[in-house]
Amino acid sequence: MNRPSIAQPETSQPEIPRSDVPQPQTPQAQTPQAQTPQTPQPQTSRSETQRSEIPGHEMPQTAVTAPQMVISRPAELAAVRELIADPADRPRALVLTGEAGIGKSTVWSAGVELAREAGWRVLSARGDQTETGLSFAGLTDLLDPVLDEVLDRLPAAQRIALEVAMVRRLPDGSRLGPNEIGNAVAAAIRELSRDRPLLVAIDDLPWIDGATVAAFEYALSRLGGESLRVLATRRTASTLAAAPPAPELLPADDVRSVPVAAIDVTAADDLLAGRLELRLPAATLRGLVEHSGGNPFWILEFGAALRRGDGDRAELPIPTALTDLVRERLGSLPPDARQALVVTAALPQPSPALVIRALSKQTDDPIAAVERAVADGVLTVSESQRLRPAHPLLGAAALDALLPLARAGLHRRLAELVDDPEQRARHVMLAAGEPPDAETADRLAAGAEAARGRGAVSGAIELADLAIRFTPPDLVSVLAQRLVDTAELYYMRGDTEKARELAATAWAASSAEPSVRRRAMALFTHTSLYTQGAAAAQKVVDEALAETADDPWLRSLALAFAADFNVASDPPHARRSAVEAIEICDRLGAEADPTALSTALLALVEIDMFDGRGLDRSLVERAGAAQADRRWIPFIERAEVRFGLSVKYVDDLDTSRAVLTRMVQTAQDMGETSATLVLQAHLAYTEVQAGRPGAARAALTAFEDAAREAGPGIGEPASLTVARALLGIMDGDLDGAEATLRAALERLPPIPLVRVIMDTPLATIALLRGDVGQAITLLDGVLEQARAVYVHEPAARGRPEGDLGQALVTAGRLAEAEAVASELAEIGERLGRPTLSGIALRVRGMIAAAQGELDEAAELLTRAVQAHEASPMPIERGRSLLALGQVQRRRKAKTEARQALQDALDCFDAHGHRPFAQLAEAELARGQRAGAGSVLTASEQRVADLVAGGYTNREVAARLSMSVRTVESHVASVFRKLGVRSRTELAGRFPQ
Question: Are residues 353 and 207 in the same domain?
Answer without folding.
Answer: no
